[in-house]
Amino acid sequence: MTQQTRSTATESGLRNKRIIILGGSSGIGLAVAQHVAAQGAQVVIASSNAERVHKAVQSIGGTTEGRSLNLSSEKAIQDFFATVGDFDHLVFTAGDTLNIGVIATADLEQARRAFDLRYWAALAAVKYGSPHIRKGGSIVLTTGLAGQRPHQGWALGASVTSAVEGLTRALAVELAPLRVNAVSPGVVRTSLWQNMTEQDRNAMYENIGKNLLVGRVGEPEEIAHSYLYLMQEGYSTGQVIVVDGGGSLV
């Protein structure tokens, strides 16, 4: 390893970096928080559920900070970044419970709320957060497989994820040299499916998993590694990493 390579590797590590994770109190966001904290990063998680934020901070330990934040409010997001201080990486993993259904019976008000959280909140986070990101930092957004391979009843999910992918590429151009990337998970065992009964949820995991190339659905801890990669490697921007168990191929 050359001196330049060693220097780059050292600079791109997460030790002593300050990382903001919006949606970091459960699921993939919590897994990311746990992984980066284990590498010595200073973590700030923010989510709308204060009780869940408190539990998440306790589970992560160390110097982790937790804040309750209404991500459906642009003003709340603006105020959060006005007081949080400078940091190195912004991760956005917030998402609501997924509702699958055909357009004929779709609740459009619910659909607007989904866009508010998954798209507009992400855009607001970038708008107000990016001026506080230190040199060499990055932004990692979250999209999903639905935009690349939609199934029956996934029109809303496909719309949101496609919008986030387009946003990722456009922001990479506009905010350069600040890097902006996204992770696109397949089906993962998270609270996004909490509107289903446990029996139905487990049946869905089994049915989907047996049709994937890896033979199972994903776990949050596995998806988290992609966020860490994008924060650390320093050369990718405008990219969407797909982690779907081969779902886009079947």
Describe what you observe in this structure.
The protein has helices at 3-11, 27-38, 50-60, 74-84, 108-129, 155-174, 198-211, 220-232, and strands at 18-22, 42-47, 65-68, 87-92, 133-142, 179-185, 240-243. It is of the alpha/beta class. The protein has a single domain (3-249), classed as NAD(P)-binding Rossmann-like Domain (Rossmann fold, 3-Layer(aba) Sandwich), CATH 3.40.50.720. A seven-stranded parallel β-sheet has the order 3-2-1-4-5-6-7, sandwiched between helices. Helix 2 packs across helix 8, helix 4 (74-84) packs parallel to helix 5 (108-129) and helix 5 packs parallel to helix 6 (155-174). The longest helix has 22 residues, at 108-129. It is globular, with a radius of gyration of 18 Å. The termini are far apart. 39% of the residues are buried. Residues 1-12 have low confidence and may be disordered.
Overall strand count? 7
Q: How big is the Rg?
A: 18 Å
The largest pleated sheet is described as:
7 strands, parallel
Parts with pLDDT < 50 across at least 5 consecutive residues: 1-12
Give the neighbour order of strands across the main sheet. 3-2-1-4-5-6-7
Q: CATH superfamily, please?
A: NAD(P)-binding Rossmann-like Domain
Helices and strands: which structural class?
Answer: alpha/beta
Gross morphology: globular
The CATH architecture assignment turns out to be 3-Layer(aba) Sandwich
Q: What's the N-to-C terminus distance?
A: 40 Å
Approximately how much helix is present in the residues?
40-55%
Order of helices and strands: HEHEHEHEHEHEHHE
Strand content: 15-25%
Average pLDDT number: 89
When the domains are counted, the total is 1
CATH class category: Alpha Beta
**And the CATH topology?**
Rossmann fold
| Tally of separate helices | 8
